Amino acid sequence: MSENIKKLISEGENQFVELKREFSEGVLKTISAFANTSGGTLLIGVNDKKEVVGLDIRDSEFKNMVDKIVDSLGFQPEIKVVTFNNRKLVRIEVPKSSIPIKYKGIYYKKVGNTTREMNTDELLRFFRRDLRWERLTNEKFNINDIDKETIENFVALSTAKGRLNLPRKDIPLIELLTMLGLIENGHFTNACILLFGKNPQQFFLGARMRVVRLKDNMTIIGDRWIVGNLFKQYYETEEAIKSLINVRYVIKGLNREDIWDYPLLAIREAIANALVHRDYFEGREVQVKVYDDKIWFNNLGGLLEGITLEELLSAHASRPRNPLIANIFYTAGIIESLGSGIERMRNALKEQNLPEPKIEANHVEFNLWFMKDIYTEDYLRQLGLNERQVKAVMYVKQKGSVTNREYREINKNISKPMASIDLNELVDRKIFERIGVTGRGTKYVLK
């Protein structure tokens, strides 16, 4: 013990250690800061010069100190009187708190060896990081607000998947929800309201989906708002998207296979990802925009602190923003092993010969795109094609083929040799395939 205290004093103050001459208001601020950052140790009875001056502290004074800390912070670290060099010190070990700790209405943080107040933005990020929105409770929500049909469907799906083992079939509703972690201290959690409520939007207006069909970035030709609990939003959003994309039919033997513009497995994963990982502290809805050549999914709730986009796109352990919601969706079989969603999207798109999903994310929002085919104008430009070649690929997508003469017609003021150079490059890069012998009968199609 003495060696440990000696080491703490000799190293001096840093992000994890603070020395105080006596018990004061500064001690309370430091406890708040340690609790809100990474924890730490206070030694009371050591001055700024790292000299051990000690404390003349009686049992009653020590009790008053402990009471002052608990009453002021609502938080009790480990506090003990220790002896070092024949002098009494108070040692306070502060663990990192799972909830934010304030002193006189102000939240503090440690920055190096200093204690500072959190500003508004820092405090908001702190709450989002350490306070699970889904575990907060709402006393206005009662058992009559539960959608029992959704509960019954969930139980049927989960038991069929073998992911829910009930002690008995007639388990009371409250017991079931408690077992699932959706009731705390006798009250329904926000996660419970979202997952199984009849009308969650009565409590959280922004907890809904919007599916929009656009001809371009400005022209809306279809708009649908989807409300209800998260299970209803999941299924109804899929149906809304299916109503806005194309499907073709392939006969295989005696069976008919539906081939959608985008694989339904990837669409379902994208919807589930948006519902499970969105930041419900924010009030805005999840948006899905369906274009002629792509689908864009956007939800608030980007990368968790400490996670980079590169880590998200590689094999990674799951760290869901809303673990209660994620667990319920997993139990119901809507999502598979946590953390596998992006890989499942990739594989589904690849099997249908579609491009990989495009993903952009920061600490505020998450954006996901599915492209109908690889030959989008943006993608072709990224390959380094010139504008004449891009225009030709778009022409072939519409018309089916292009000849040298048609190439010159759609690209004004271009010579026949230059057209041949452009077309040969598209063949060499395996974008076009040449059909027919050299001459007027030659045409070019997408490979």
List keywords for this structure.
Methyltransferase, Cobalt-precorrin-4 Transmethylase, Domain 2; six-stranded mixed sheet; 37% helix; 21% strand; alpha+beta; 19 strands; Heat Shock Protein 90; 16 helices; Arc Repressor Mutant, subunit A; 447 residues; 3 domains
Q: Tally of extended strands?
A: 19
Give the CATH level 1 class of the largest domain.
Alpha Beta
CATH architecture classification name of the largest domain: 2-Layer Sandwich
Shape: elongated
CATH topology term of the largest domain: Heat Shock Protein 90
Fraction in beta strands:
15-25%
- Please list the strands of the largest sheet in the order they lie side by side: 11-10-14-15-17-16
What class would the helix/strand composition place it in?
alpha+beta
Q: Which percent range fits the helix content?
A: 25-40%
Tally of separate domains: 3
Largest sheet: 6 strands, mixed
In terms of per-residue confidence, which ranges show pLDDT below 50 for 5 or more consecutive residues? none
Radius of gyration: 31 Å
Oligomer: single chain
Rounded to the nearest angstrom, the distance between the terminal CA atoms is: 75 Å
